[in-house]
């Protein structure tokens, strides 16, 4: 009896989504099959979540409701080359691969209802940000299902497919940028004399608290910045330093460059 959810690629994101979908009760462990070539990885996923595992991607593609494609874009062509015809009604295929357009998915999975999604790693703790773009065959029920799947790992927004590479450059890759910012803030604290553990705690909670404040009070970032900067005080001195070193430009260029890289991966 085929499972309801098939996951192709049980890596970082496959596991993040799997763990939250089961914790949220959207799928029971016995309703899920994960395909991955690494036996050690399969054993780990089976032991941690009680899901079925297989080295055969076709078993995941035979899932009745949803197939999550969570392999690297660089191996998509190799995976697609092995796909056999699935008889009868096709499940919803949700790809989280960076860059790979719906048109390429449709060429590999003709006639399948397709969703292109871009989650991010905070999904692991239910604080993710996912954008989805729907293919033409997706029914309203499948659109609701796609939103439900990603709601279980955080916030969901629907966008035009033309924006998905920009999403990837911002929220998909963004946790990497923020992690570096936090590490650098902690380094600054250490340079100013703080013990490492305290510096890291201060940096993490400052970033988390600032994001929560902006979100909770629906504040524009510039308003919050103005609130923190006392005339002739410490914050404006620090900001002047950031501006002279080009932090804003660096972040803008990081998002644009990552967006461009997503386009290259999907070409
Ligand atoms: N990491 C992130 O922050 C995000 C990633 N993504 C996207 O998610 C996808 C997965 O990324 P991520 O989880 O980080 O990558 P991982 O490498 O952690 O996961 C991919 C998994 O697929 C397995 N795999 C390799 N070849 C095959 C195959 N032929 N059939 C089935 N499975 C295979 C890999 O096994 P092995 O390691 O043995 O090769 C690995 O376990 C990518 O397309 C990426 O663009 C999207 C949003 C955020
Ligand atoms: O770095 C990458 O290519 C993937 C996609 C978004 C986040 N990680």
TrEMBL record:
InterPro entries in alphabetical order: 6-PGluconate_DH-like_C_sf, NAD(P)-bd_dom_sf, P5C_Rdtase_cat_N, P5CR-like_CS, P5CR_dimer, Pyrroline-COOH_reductase
Where it sits in the cell: the answer is: Cytoplasm
NCBIfam families noted in UniProt? proC (TIGR00112)
* Purpose of the protein: Catalyzes the reduction of 1-pyrroline-5-carboxylate (PCA) to L-proline.
Q: Which SUPFAM superfamilies match?
A: 6-phosphogluconate dehydrogenase C-terminal domain-like (SSF48179), NAD(P)-binding Rossmann-fold domains (SSF51735)
The segment(s) forming the Pyrroline-5-carboxylate reductase dimerisation domain are 161-265
**Top-level taxonomic group:** Bacteria
* Gene Ontology terms, MF aspect: pyrroline-5-carboxylate reductase activity
- Gene field: proC
Q: Which HAMAP family match?
A: P5C_reductase (MF_01925)
Which reactions fall under this protein's catalytic activity? L-proline + NADP(+) = (S)-1-pyrroline-5-carboxylate + NADPH + 2 H(+); L-proline + NAD(+) = (S)-1-pyrroline-5-carboxylate + NADH + 2 H(+)
Q: What is this protein called?
A: Pyrroline-5-carboxylate reductase
Among Gene3D superfamilies, the record links this protein to: NAD(P)-binding Rossmann-like Domain, ProC C-terminal domain-like
Q: In which pathway does it act?
A: Amino-acid biosynthesis; L-proline biosynthesis; L-proline from L-glutamate 5-semialdehyde: step 1/1
Q: What is its main location?
A: cytoplasm
Name the Enzyme Commission number(s) assigned to this protein: 1.5.1.2
State the species of origin.
Answer: Almyronema epifaneia S1
Enzyme superclass (EC): oxidoreductase
């Amino acid at each position: 009896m085929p499972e309801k959810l098939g996951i192709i690629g049980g890596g970082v994101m496959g596991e993040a989504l799997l763990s939250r979908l089961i914790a949220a009760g959207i799928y029971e462990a016995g309703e899920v099959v994960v395909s991955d070539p690494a036996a050690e990885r399969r054993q780990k996923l089976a032991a941690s979540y009680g899901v079925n595992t297989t080295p055969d991607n076709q078993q995941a593609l035979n899932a009745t409701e949803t197939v999550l494609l969570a392999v690297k874009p660089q191996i998509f062509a190799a995976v697609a080359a092995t796909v056999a015809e699935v008889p009868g009604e096709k499940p919803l295929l949700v790809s989280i691969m960076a860059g790979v357009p719906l048109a390429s998915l449709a060429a590999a999975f003709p006639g399948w209802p397709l969703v292109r999604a871009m989650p991010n790693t905070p999904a692991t703790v239910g604080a993710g940000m996912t954008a989805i773009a729907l293919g033409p065959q997706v029914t309203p029920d499948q659109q609701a299902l796609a939103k439900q799947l990603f709601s279980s790992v955080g916030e969901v927004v629907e966008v035009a497919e033309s924006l998905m590479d920009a999403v990837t450059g911002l929220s998909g890759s963004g946790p990497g940028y923020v992690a570096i910012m936090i590490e650098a803030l902690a380094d600054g604290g250490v340079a100013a004399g703080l013990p490492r553990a305290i510096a890291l705690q201060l940096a993490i909670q400052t970033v988390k608290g600032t994001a929560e404040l902006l979100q909770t009070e629906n504040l524009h970032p510039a308003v919050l910045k103005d609130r923190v900067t006392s005339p002739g005080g410490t914050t404006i001195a620090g900001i002047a330093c950031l501006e002279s070193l080009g932090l804003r430009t660096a972040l803008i260029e990081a998002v644009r460059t990552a967006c461009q890289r997503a386009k290259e991966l999907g070409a």
